[in-house]
């Protein structure tokens, strides 16, 4: 009787240990395939961060933090890709592949990420769209991709969703009945905890390149090769979206223009930093606004006006 009691107690302790340890006993769901600068990871169930290196295993529950001038890329087992921009904190919330269903969810606490779907995921969506999801969640938004490539950013309480290729959707989890579809070349914003996504509108070529440059691995090449690569990105974007801006993709920011805090473009004398995060370019003489959401939309609107004026000329 005593022996049976001790055996039962040992079994109970082992089960309790497995439940507490959780993800640490699970198989990795991917690995780090690119790292630049200082990026660390907080493993699920731990309190100490560790620097990541090429090949670092990725588990559900991991939280990755990229510091200033730092980037990372994660490739999952199904070959979906998550790219992490500087000044970003993102958590791997869910990864499940079972039969014809799959669920892949990231929680973006701050900063910017790029999500790229794999061929396997595209096939799954084509066969059973409702049973497969690849989403990025922010405190006030859900953004999901199908056969596509999107960039999601969350700063100062505002979420932006930009689709580079393919199609997808976004909605505010507080208002799940209003789901807004998005297609390539368009951007939408969720400006507050209780607002629905804005109607998707065309993103300028400059805006697209700015966001792409902050998330993609830094190319190890000279200025001319980098310029050609930027031109190819713009060409692919225009082909997919049907957008035809006249702006030269290699053009630098001119005096009097502003930049958002997440851009890599260099300012010239007399320029000022914009407090918006939507990536628009606006005049230094513009008046101040009361909320981050209206700042973002104003910057985006100014950029579109600028493009329209150039086309009329």
* End-to-end gap: 93 Å
Shape type: globular
Strand fraction equals 25-35%
Question: What multimeric state do the chains show?
Answer: single chain
Please summarize the sheet with the most strands.
17 strands, mixed
- Rg over CA atoms: 22 Å
Structural class: alpha+beta
What's the mean pLDDT score? 77
Low confidence ranges: 14-24, 243-292
Report on this model:
The chain has 313 residues and is α+β, with helices and mostly antiparallel strands. The strands form 2 sheets. It has a 17-stranded mixed beta sheet that branches. The protein has a two-stranded parallel sheet with strand order 18-19. The model is unreliable at 14-24 and 243-292 (pLDDT under 50). The protein has a domain at 27-205: Sandwich (Jelly Rolls), CATH 2.60.120.1440. The chain has helices at residues 2-21, 119-127, 205-215, 223-241, 292-312, and strands at 30-36, 39-42, 49-51, 57-58, 63-66, 71-76, 81-84, 88-98, 101-116, 132-138, 141-145, 149-155, 158-165, 167-171, 180-183, 186-190, 201-202, 258-259, 272-273. A hairpin with a 2-residue loop joins strand 12 and strand 13 (158-165). It starts with a helix and ends with a helix.
């Amino acid at each position: 009787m005593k022996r049976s009691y001790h055996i039962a107690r040992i079994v109970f302790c082992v089960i309790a240990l497995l439940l507490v340890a959780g993800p640490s006993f699970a198989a990795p769901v991917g690995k780090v395939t690119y790292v630049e600068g200082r990026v660390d990871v907080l493993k699920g169930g731990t309190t100490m961060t560790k620097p990541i290196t090429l090949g670092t295993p990725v588990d559900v529950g991991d939280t990755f933090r990229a510091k200033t001038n730092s980037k990372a890329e994660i490739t999952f087992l199904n070959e979906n890709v998550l790219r992490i921009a500087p000044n970003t904190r993102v958590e791997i919330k869910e990864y499940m592949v079972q039969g014809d269903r799959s669920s892949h969810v990231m929680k973006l606490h701050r900063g910017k990420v790029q999500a790229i779907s794999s061929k396997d995921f595209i096939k799954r969506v084509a066969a059973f769209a409702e049973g497969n999801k690849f989403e990025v969640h922010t405190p006030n938004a859900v953004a999901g991709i199908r056969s596509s490539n999107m960039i999601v950013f969350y700063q100062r309480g505002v979420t932006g969703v930009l689709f580079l290729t393919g199609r997808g959707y976004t909605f505010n989890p507080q208002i799940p009945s209003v789901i807004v579809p998005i297609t390539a070349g368009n951007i939408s914003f969720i400006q507050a905890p209780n607002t629905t996504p804005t109607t998707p509108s065309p993103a300028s070529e400059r805006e697209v390149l700015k966001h792409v440059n902050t998330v993609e691995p830094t190319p190890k090449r000279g200025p001319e090769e980098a310029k050609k690569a930027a031109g190819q990105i713009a060409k692919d974007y225009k082909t997919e979206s049907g957008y035809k801006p006249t702006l030269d993709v290699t053009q630098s920011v001119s005096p009097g223009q502003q930049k958002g805090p997440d851009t890599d473009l260099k300012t010239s004398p007399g320029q000022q930093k914009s407090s918006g995060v939507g990536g628009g370019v606006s005049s230094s003489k513009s008046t101040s606004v009361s909320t981050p959401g209206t700042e973002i939309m104003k910057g985006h609107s100014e950029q579109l006006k600028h493009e329209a004026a150039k086309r009329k000329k």
